[in-house]
Amino acid sequence: MSLLLDDIRPDVVTNVADGYEGHCKLIVQGSYSEEVVVFPNLEEAKSAATAAVEPVVGGYHGAEIEMTTDAVTHETAEEWLFLD
Asked: What are the UniProt keywords, alphabetically (predicted)?
């Protein structure tokens, strides 16, 4: 299922099934590169995606959230955005 999260940002796309409670992969697109990070849950991925597409905070121009079984790379959105 792919839908735009208008209540978050129209430039954040999620491909996460309703009721999913596992790890979520966030793929963000910059001008010249793509970055992939994994959060423990959808809530953290949404927080990170929202901030990532803010010009002043993250500066990325697009973000996609997917379900994954990959290992968590960051526990919180703040850890990824401000401590890396």
From this structure: Plasmid
The 10 Å Cβ neighbour count of residue 6 is 8
pTM: 0.84
* Number of domains forming the structure of the chain: 1
Angle at 10 between CA 5 and CA 13, to 5 degrees: 55
pLDDT of 12-42, one tens digit each? 899 999 999 999 999 999 888 899 999 999 9
**Tokens at 47, concatenated:** 């927080």
Distance CA 37, CA 71 (A): 10
- Owning domain of residue 75: 3-82
- Asked if 66 and 25 touch (Cβ cutoff 8 Å), the reply is yes
